[in-house]
Write a structure and sequence with these properties.
Helix content is 32%, strand content 12%. The chain is α+β, with helices and mostly antiparallel strands.
Amino acid sequence: MSRDDWRLFIASYWAYVTLTDHCVGQILATLERTGQRENTVVIFTSDHGELVGAHGFITKYPQLFDEGLHIPLVLRWPEGAARGVVRQGLTSSIDLLPTICELAGVEIPDAVHGESLVPLLGPGPEPATGRDETFSEYDGNIGQAYSVRMARTKEWKYVYAPYGRDELYHLASDPGECVNVADRSENRPVLADMQDRMARRMAQTNDNTFGRFNVRRKRTAP
């Protein structure tokens, strides 16, 4: 792609973002006009981000960099959400179902893996409770060759693909995920911990995609 192609591509992406913002504004204006503003919970999020040239890619998958995974999550709850509060904790899209259930006064199903975000919505300091890890997965369209899994904490990210190298990024010092430190001997304990986290998660969700983690699961599952 030429420099002009990149400029057009990036400008087009931000044009879509601007259009989306305008459409959300129309929804909020309609709630106000119809008198439903104060009894309606509004949640705005996205199914994925976009690399937009980051790391040399213009697609959303199968690369599990934060540009594609770190998505917006804005919640407006007239009865209890503090206005303008920004939380820094880890969340996941699977947390939305239990959150909506709690806000609606509906019992959260036992099979749900997500965690309600309601404790994060009030004023004051961010609660100490919440997630200490998140996970992402992609299975592509043409089989295991394009399947990939990710485990993330606030400090580390681990990515596994069956036909590629392990990827480990120290997000505290490398937020751009530019240096893969999986092969460094001093990081072996961290790598093992992240692999165990992933194995436990795959066991919990009956994810049998990778034989390697099927073996690890037998050893690490509770």
